[in-house]
Amino acid sequence: MVTNDVATEIETDRDSSDVQPERGTDLDGPEPQDAADDVRFRLLMAGFPTGVTVISTLGRGQAPMGMTCSALCSVSLGPPTLLACLRAGSPTLAAIRRRRVFAVNLLHEAAQPVAELFGSGAPDRFDRVRWRIEPSWGVPVLFDDVHAVARCRVVDSKLVGDHRVVFGEVTHIRHYAEIRSPLMYGRRRYAGWPAG
């Protein structure tokens, strides 16, 4: 999400004491049947389709590491920065925090098996896909299964609940010659981005 600086400045200049509740607003909070819990939150987010990526890096001994991630968004155009939310206990996250670089592999519509594989935690996942380390990038790229890939340098991270938000400044981008639609995930199913 790229923010509009002018709108942000206008919004932050307002004094919160000037904001009055709308008529009919329940100041006591939501009704008990509307309270957020794990099930309701998962259902809410399932209704927000998103692209699917594999976040990858190198671990100890140059071993490739990677995991499926759909919690990704742009943060800034200058410098180009994105964020990815990764499970706090993930070995891939631990490797990213050590190496300070990672790749965002944007999966294409035929890569559902790869998304499922890298979401499974299977220890042999890199043995079951084609990948390479791009010269000067220093991170694994799943070149058969992506429509685009970005190399990122970690600039910050923040622990939020059971996930860590990793901010990456994008240093390299490659689009692949064969244009394929992005893989999407929503309502607990995969689909290609509609043509046209």
UniProtKB/TrEMBL annotation:
Alphabetical list of InterPro entries matching this protein: Flavin_Rdtase-like_dom, NADH-dep_flavin_reductase, Split_barrel_FMN-bd
A biological process from GO = pyrimidine nucleobase catabolic process
Q: Which residues cross the membrane?
A: none
> Which superkingdom does the taxonomy of this entry point to?
Bacteria
Stretches the record annotates as Disordered? 1-34
Domain Flavin reductase like, first and last residues per copy: 45-192
Q: Which UniProt keywords apply?
A: Oxidoreductase
Q: Where is the composition biased (Basic and acidic residues)?
A: 11-26
Give this protein's Gene Ontology molecular function annotations: FMN binding; riboflavin reductase (NADPH) activity
Cite a single Pfam family from the UniProt record. Flavin_Reduct
- Tell me yes or no: is Oxidoreductase among this UniProt entry's keywords: yes
Protein's name in the database: Conserved protein of DIM6/NTAB family
